[in-house]
Every structure is written in structure tokens, then in C-alpha cells.
Specification:
Blueprint (H helix, E strand, L loop, with lengths): L1 H30 L5 H10 L41 H23 L12 H13 L7 E6 L21 E7 L18 E5 L31 H4 E8 L14 E8 L15 E2 L3 E2 L7 E13 L10 E13 L4
Antiparallel strand pairs: 1-2, 1-9, 2-3, 4-5, 6-8, 7-8, 8-9
The structure holds 2-acetamido-2-deoxy-beta-D-glucopyranose (7 copies).
Keywords: Signal
Length: about 325
């Protein structure tokens, strides 16, 4: 018994020495390689901040410099600029964010009558909508959200609340979950079909409209929209013609119904101001407590005629009430 122990100890000692030797050699190989900017990013951000230690980090620690992601797409350059093929995911996120913001602006302003109240986008609709964005884009989008500013969302699903009352915060955020080790997943491969969705405004200390909230780099681009002097230059009036159909292959009438609504901006070709673009990108930030990954988001604003229900129509104006946000992992963009 004792003999075996001694051998084990000896063997361990030998192994340690071997390992040490190896380490010294390994050290030698890498010291002559000069450290570059990528090593700095990895050391300062990616290795330093993880899901288990991010809660105690400051907001500044969890946001990278703004020059790290290159060739960020701009709405008025999409037709005139050649994008590298490794930027196609960013272009796709740009278009998805714009598409969601455009649609939400349209549907909120379209469904403004008493009969439409019960069929406005509700809790269920928004949860399904962000899930669909993620599941429809398994190779480009890791997260999608529709987030409302404070006191602008009328919850038609809260039946004990007056129709003209808003709730303070409502932000539907979805992100793809890794289900490699899920119980029902026998083959132990992620199938990219599991999404976690959460109302990020629910609960204590979840005020994402507050500057001190850590995980809201998408907020300050357009929200809160309280100054009406900018309305003309950062919103756009779209006029669309729609033909409705209630039977397959047949329209109710042959003419188009014209509908005008306010939506995200439509900048001219020579617009240089980034603030006038309909979609803007955040710096890479750590999505602490949600997906726990470094992500970059494309953000586009949602417009509504606000307040929705008021007898004083002259007090109403087209206002940015929320944002559509698309996330991608930093390592993939
Ligand atoms: C994208 O492709 C271009 C051209 O091939 C290359 O110069 C650039 O470094 C690539 N960017 C990334 C982030 O891989
Ligand atoms: C609903 O929207 C239409 C088209 O913008 C507008 O003409 C109508 O006045 C609005 N109705 C209400 C109740 O706000
Ligand atoms: C995030 O999206 C990229 C594609 O852009 C994909 O390769 C990666 O697996 C996704 N990550 C998760 C956890 O879904
Ligand atoms: C909401 O509607 C009720 C009646 O249904 C009315 O008494 C109240 O003043 C309205 N509140 C607002 C903020 O318009
Ligand atoms: C959230 O923070 C904003 C900005 O500080 C404040 O005006 C608002 O009252 C807060 N809302 C809630 C529900 O705490
Ligand atoms: C479709 O709408 C037209 C016009 O409102 C109506 O006459 C027709 O009965 C509707 N058809 C169905 C299947 O609901
Ligand atoms: C708003 O106008 C309607 C119809 O004119 C009226 O019945 C209602 O009492 C008014 N509501 C308020 C809060 O003034």
C-alpha cells in the first residue's frame, strides 16, 4: 500500500516537472508574438466579463469602444455602396429592425378605432413576433425585442384597466437559448429553435428608461421623444395603398385604399448625419442577465400618434413610442 503511494507521489512530481517544462517552452513560443488590438479586446472585455460576474460591473465596463465594429450599414448607402460579404448579417439586421419598426408604426396608427381595440398587438402577439424574428433567422439574428418607452403602451390584455390608461414599462425581449443539454434533446446538438422571451420592465429595479440602467444602450438614440421641434426632420410620412382581401385570390375592391402614417425617417442620399438614419447600431455591449453574451444591436424607432385616446386631438402628435431592436453576437458579426 505504502509503496504504491510513494510511486504515485513520485509520478505526480515527475508529471509536475514535465508540465512545468512544457509551460516554460510554451511561454517561450508566445512571447515573441506581439500582442495586437484583438488580444486587448479579448483580455479587457471578453475574458474579463462573464455571466456570473457581470452584475457587479459598471455600465462603462460592459460597453466596448465605438470603433470596433467596422462598415456599419446606413440606410441611404444600401443601394450605392458595396458591402463586404462578411457584413451581410449586419445589413440583414438593419433591414429586419427597420421592417419591424415600420410595421409596428403602421399597425398602431391603423388600428385606432374602437372596434380595433381588442385586436391591437397584444402581449401574446408581441411575444410570438420576437420569437418568429429569431427562429426565421437561425444564421443571422440571436435576439429581437420590441421595447416601449415609459407610459406609452396601452395594454388591451389587462382587462381590469381603463382602455385609456397606459402601463409604466413594457419591453418584450427575446433571445435564442442554447438547448444542447435540454432534456428532450437526445442528440445533444443545438437545434436553434428555442427562444426565451421576457418582459424586461417587469419587477423591481427594472426601469430601463433610467440612465443608470445598465443594459439599455438602445434607449438614448430616440427616446424619450418629448421635443416636438425635431418632428419634421426625424420622422417621415409614408403613404401606402393597400387592397384588402377576405377570400383567397380575390380583393374586396379593385382600388387601393390609401393610408398615411408616420414612421422611421427616410433620409436623402446626401444625408450625412447619423442621427437622421432610420436605423442605428449600438456599440458591442454585454447582455448581462439575459443572453449573457457580447452583442451588437440594430435599433429602429416606432412611431404612434400620441396620446392615443384623448378628447383633445390638437394635443396629439406623432411621437417615438418605442424601439425595435435586433441583436447579433459580437463574435459573429
Ligand atoms: C471582412 O472582409 C474584408 C475584405 O475581405 C476584410 O478586409 C475584413 O477584415 C473582414 N472583416 C472582418 C471583421 O472579418
Ligand atoms: C385613425 O386614423 C385615421 C387615419 O390616420 C384618421 O383619419 C382618424 O381620425 C383616426 N381616428 C382616431 C379616432 O384617432
Ligand atoms: C447566434 O447567431 C449566430 C449566427 O449569426 C450563430 O452561429 C450562433 O450559433 C447563434 N448563437 C446562439 C446561442 O444561438
Ligand atoms: C379615461 O376614460 C375615463 C372614462 O372612461 C375618464 O373618466 C378618464 O378621464 C380618462 N382618462 C384619461 C387620462 O383620459
Ligand atoms: C424610470 O426612470 C425615469 C427616469 O429616471 C423616471 O422618470 C420614471 O419615473 C421611472 N419609472 C418608474 C416606473 O420607476
Ligand atoms: C368579403 O367582403 C365583401 C365586402 O365586404 C362581402 O360582400 C363578402 O361577403 C365577404 N366574403 C366573405 C367570405 O366574408
Ligand atoms: C370625450 O368626448 C366624448 C364625446 O364627445 C364624451 O362623451 C366624453 O365624456 C369626453 N370625455 C372626457 C374625459 O372629457
Amino acid at each position: 500500500m505504502k509503496k504504491i503511494k510513494t510511486t504515485t507521489v513520485l509520478f505526480n512530481l515527475f508529471y509536475c516537472m514535465l508540465l512545468k517544462e512544457e509551460l516554460v517552452v510554451a511561454d517561450g513560443v508566445f512571447t515573441w508574438l506581439q500582442r495586437d488590438r484583438y488580444d486587448e479586446i479579448v483580455e479587457k472585455y471578453i475574458n474579463a466579463i462573464k455571466g456570473h460576474n457581470c452584475a457587479s460591473r459598471s455600465k462603462a465596463d460592459m460597453m466596448m469602444r465605438d470603433d470596433i465594429v467596422t462598415q456599419i450599414p446606413k440606410a441611404n448607402e444600401l443601394l450605392s455602396k458595396v458591402f463586404y460579404s462578411n457584413r451581410s448579417a449586419l445589413v440583414h439586421m438593419h433591414n429586419m429592425a427597420l421592417n419591424r419598426a415600420f410595421f409596428m408604426s403602421y399597425i398602431l396608427q391603423r388600428m385606432n378605432s374602437t372596434e380595433d381595440y381588442s385586436i391591437q398587438p397584444n402581449l401574446h402577439y408581441l411575444y410570438m413576433s420576437v420569437t418568429a424574428d429569431i427562429n426565421a433567422n437561425p444564421y443571422a439574428i440571436n435576439g429581437s425585442s420590441i421595447i416601449f418607452d415609459k407610459d406609452v403602451y396601452y395594454p388591451n390584455w389587462l382587462t381590469n384597466l381603463d382602455f385609456n390608461k397606459t402601463i409604466p414599462l413594457f419591453g418584450v425581449k427575446g433571445w435564442r437559448k442554447d438547448n444542447t443539454f435540454a432534456q428532450g434533446n437526445f442528440i445533444r446538438e443545438p437545434n436553434r429553435r428555442v427562444v426565451q422571451v421576457k418582459d424586461i420592465g417587469a419587477g423591481n429595479n427594472k426601469n430601463y428608461t433610467n440612465e443608470r440602467h445598465k443594459m439599455n444602450p438602445w434607449y438614448q438614440f430616440w427616446l424619450p421623444d418629448l421635443d416636438k421641434h425635431e418632428d419634421k426632420s426625424n420622422k417621415f410620412t409614408y403613404s401606402i395603398g393597400i387592397r384588402y382581401s377576405n377570400v383567397t385570390g380575390k380583393f374586396i375592391k379593385e382600388e387601393f385604399d390609401v393610408f398615411n402614417f408616420f414612421g422611421p425617417n427616410l433620409p436623402s442620399q446626401n444625408e450625412k448625419d447619423n442621427g437622421k438614419m432610420p436605423v442605428r447600431f449600438t456599440v458591442p455591449y454585454f447582455d448581462c442577465g439575459k443572453s449573457n453574451k457580447w452583442v451588437v444591436s440594430a435599433v429602429s424607432p416606432i412611431v404612434d400618434f400620441f396620446p392615443r385616446y384623448s378628447n383633445y386631438t390638437h394635443m396629439r402628435r406623432q411621437r417615438f413610442v418605442g424601439v425595435a431592436v435586433m441583436d447579433i453576437h459580437f463574435s459573429k458579426n
